[in-house]
Amino acid sequence: MRPVKNLALDTTEMIGSFEQVYMDICINQNEAIPGVTTHEEFSEIRMLSSLACLTPYSDCNQSPRNMYQCQMGKQTMGTPCHAYKYRADNKLYRIQTPQSPMVRPGMHDHYDVDNYPMGTNAVVAVISYTGYDMEDAMILNKSAFDRGFAHGSIYKSELIDLRKKAQDKYRTVLVFGSKAGDKRTEGKLDPDGLPPIGTYLQDGDVYYSFYNLQTGEYRVERYRKSEPSYVDHIKIIGNDTGTGDMEKVCIVLRIVRNPIVGDKFSSRHGQKGIYIIFNPHGYPSRMTIGMMIESMAGKSAASHGHCYDATPFKYTEDQPPIDYMGKMLNAAGYNYYGTERLYSGVDGRELEADIFIGIVYYQRLRHMVSDKFQVRTTGPIDQVTHQPVKGRKRGGGIRFGEMERDALISHGSAFLLQDRLLNCSDSSLAHVCKKCGSILSPYMDRPPSANAAVSAEQERKWSCSICKQTNSIELIKVPYVFKYLVAELAAINIKVNLDIQAF
Half-sphere exposure of residue 105, counting CA atoms within 13 Å on the CB side? Predict the structure, then answer.
């Protein structure tokens, strides 16, 4: 249900989505048709959702870009809450130094978004510079990074319940505690067996300790995560009366995530990019004119010291926002078109071009390369196929599929194909009979002597169970999954013969 104005009765009426289809609702009085139009919208932006209302100058953007922003606005690494000190979320993203946008729609204040800011006001230059900003990539000023631009943190909660570690889960057996004089925990754990607030933890560091009340056995657990973190706060969980033993705690870890190459940023116009010099080729195809207007408006707002209203449908063709912002920039002493002369950071000379530069509100998104990168040299393999397992958490490899294989074949990369599909995958040695071509029939002779020491010194030969010969066995290199396939086919009465030739 949503409110509209009933023109006949001059009252507010709540309508549903089904009846709205059969009604004639105008945006304003100029569009009302006498005798046909029955209702009127209270505002031009009433058709937009609460998220869409937060996009500045959205009427100047291509509609898919506004939809992208509605999705990315929910993925910002902003300020989700103010009570994070008292919460124990599984994972919580937070930006350290958020700012309030200087160019904002009217609904920004209506929803009180200033108390939950989502990004930072960034000075953005639109220039194709050095080639490192191609295909939505961006260049970030190092001094801005050093001063804390878009620095963020991830809060992760870990629940440690000693009852699950104990064999007897119905009575208190294990409790947290530290052993006096233990060099492993000295200076690293408090007397209660828990790390002090602010402790920096790396893989292999002492995490917490506990002991058994019955046997007196003492045990120290270590931090087993690849990413270092800080102990932000610890919550001791007891019973309702607070009289129980300390056998359950919640440790909240803070992981520092400063921007690195590969992290995702986005303006409020669906212009996502990785890491802020903005490439001008991102404008023509995306048609996000609202971002250009915001850049000029932000520059003017910073110069005059007040915020601008960026509510959609406020400006008209006769009074375009760019003309107004250009005049305000002129009044502040800047160029009407928002351009400036810049100096090259490489050789210090002035660039022979007018660079469009302004202030755009940029959001840091929660898609970070630290959570997604996957690399593997050696690691666990599948017991059946002897190929690398899949999955980032298990230390697995990335699947080299049929399309990747076809791409290398089309390029004629024979050695690269052999490296990816054999040497780095499931390379194995197999015995095959040259006479009958079977890879399953060769077998090793039994030891001639029962004495193991004597048998080890004697050479054991390979024979073919079909041909009954020993001089026809050759050793070849094949993928292990091929041996598995031949065995599977043999199970359904399909024989595979190999044509072996010596080169």
Answer: 25
